[in-house]
Amino acid sequence: PLLPLDRNEHDSALERTIDSLPDHGLPNKEWAESLRQTLRCMCAPDPTQRLDAGQALELLRAFAGQAA
């Protein structure tokens, strides 16, 4: 489904979506929470808080390497 256009509703819906993701075979809760935090940073509304493509790629490769 599409995310709401209202910024507060959008942010809340995005947070619920990220929080509802499964652990994807990561080794423990800390890894799973780190993935969720990475996704939050990738989607940050403030560009100064957003990960750049290189940072995101490096982190996502680390998660892929740890996933079962």
Summarize the structure.
This protein has three helices and no strands.
What does this protein structure show overall?
- The protein is mainly α and 68 residues long.
- It is 60% helix and 0% strand.
- Helix 2 runs antiparallel to helix 3.
- The longest helix has 14 residues, at 29-42.
Fold topology:
Elements: H1 7-19, H2 29-42, H3 53-66
H-E order: HHH
Strand content: under 5%
Helix content: 55-70%
Shape assignment: globular
Query: Helix count?
Result: 3
The rounded distance between the terminal residues' Cα atoms is: 28 Å
Count of DSSP strands = 0
Radius of gyration, CA atoms, in whole angstroms: 13 Å
Mean pLDDT: 93
Question: Largest sheet at a glance?
Answer: none
**Low-confidence sequence ranges:** none
Q: Report the structural category.
A: mainly alpha
Key phrases:
globular; 0% strand; mainly alpha; 68 residues
